[in-house]
Automatic annotation (TrEMBL):
Residues 24-76 form the PAC domain. It comes from the Bacteria. GO terms for molecular function: phosphorelay sensor kinase activity; protein dimerization activity. It comes from Noviherbaspirillum sedimenti. This is PAS domain S-box protein. GO terms for cellular component: membrane. CDD domains: PAS (cd00130). Keywords: Kinase, Transferase, Two-component regulatory system.
Length: 184
């Protein structure tokens, strides 16, 4: 008897055979005496004598073990590829985060050094040239306003890029995965 003879496919096959109906490409597996699993595909047609009495089935069968092994190998290969792709994405994200941290730290240190130098320079020029400092404060205020406007423009550009990237991601991975990425 085949392995898994209590499976639904075997139960359907029994019903078909008991009803004396023809069947095509019924696939089943058996375990050989050496422990090896073999797969077969059979098709059959019921035979009846001239009085309509059932005589048995006539049909064909073929060994499909190699095909089944190849199908299983393909399934495993696809699963492994999915695992590797997920792992690759994890590595990419980890590397992106590391680079972002490094850039943030480096940029923060550089900006702090510039700020300290600017403060020192301001203090030195204020004491030496008070009139120049009043004019410089007005220029500084204008520059700050200009800088705020520039930052606003940069923020809008970054926001536009983020929206475009999100749309691209949604098209690339489909709506369900995009929602999962957006939430996570």
């Amino acid at each position: 008897m085949g392995l898994g003879s209590n499976e639904p496919s075997w139960q359907r096959q029994r019903v078909t055979a008991e009803a004396r109906l023809p069947f095509t490409d019924f696939e089943y597996r058996i375990q050989a005496s050496d422990g090896r699993i073999a797969w077969y595909s059979v098709s059959g047609e019921p035979m009846f004598d001239e009085h309509g009495a059932y005589q048995g089935y006539r049909g064909t069968g073929k060994d499909i073990t190699e095909r089944k092994l190849a199908e299983e190998a393909l399934r495993q290969s696809r699963a492994r590829i999915r695992e590797l792709a997920a792992h690759q994405e994890t590595i990419k994200e980890t590397e992106r985060q590391r680079i972002a941290r490094d850039l943030h730290d480096e940029l923060g240190q550089t900006l702090l050094a510039i700020r300290l130098d600017a403060t020192t320079l301001t203090e030195q020029t204020t004491a030496a040239h008070p009139d120049f400092h009043r004019s410089a404060r007005l220029i500084g205020l204008l520059r700050k306003l200009h800088l705020v406007a520039h930052r606003r423009r940069v923020a809008l550009v970054c926001l536009d890029r983020k929206v475009q990237a999100q749309r691209h991601l949604a098209r690339a991975v489909g709506p369900a995965k995009a929602r999962q990425v957006a939430i996570g």
